[in-house]
Amino acid sequence: MKLVGIVGTNSLESTNRRLLQYMKQHYGKKVELEICEIADIPVFDEPEDKKAPESVQELSKKIANSDGVIFATPEYDHSIPAVLKNTIEWLSYTTRPLINKPVMIIGASNGSLGTSRAQGHLRQILEAPELKALIMPNVEFLLGRSLQAFDDDGQLVYKEKVQELDQDFDEFISFVQLTQKLMTDDKFFEKNKQFSWDQVANGEDM
Known about the structure:
Layout: E1 2-7, H1 15-26, E2 32-36, H2 54-64, E3 68-72, H3 82-92, E4 102-108, H4 116-126, E5 134-135, E6 141-143, H5 159-182, H6 186-189, H7 197-201
Parallel strand pairs: 1-2, 1-3, 3-4, 4-5, 4-6
């Protein structure tokens, strides 16, 4: 199984990146997890040539070719970082690779509450008509006190959180497998994934 993990911030010291790195190592025998950065994604705007920037196209291809996506988001001012929202806007207005794509949401924060508000907002965003991601239900992995959560080898030191993440991740694998079975009915799940700037100009895709 091939998964894509998206670091939802451009911070070089983010514990969300460390959380994905831990998962890549810890679950390496179960899945192939590629960690993707979004720092090089430009500010969202209609490009003159009406084509997505190369960095957006590259991320879109990785998502499209994956079996599922894991978003690791911090919480800024009770919501997701602007850089993550910016990236999602590019994806929703170009290739739309998240349509019918299984998604797991996780988050790390130094606060005791983790990233509960940000995760709630991210769920709402990913359920938008232009995105239609298949978000894993009933799972909310919140890693609080994240600055003390990893040792020098990158291992998660909170035993209860290790057990929780193990269970959540196994459930996500099952969710991806179930989704793949449902996707055999191509006609039922067929969606218009390709965005057109001309449609917006004509008021057809608002």
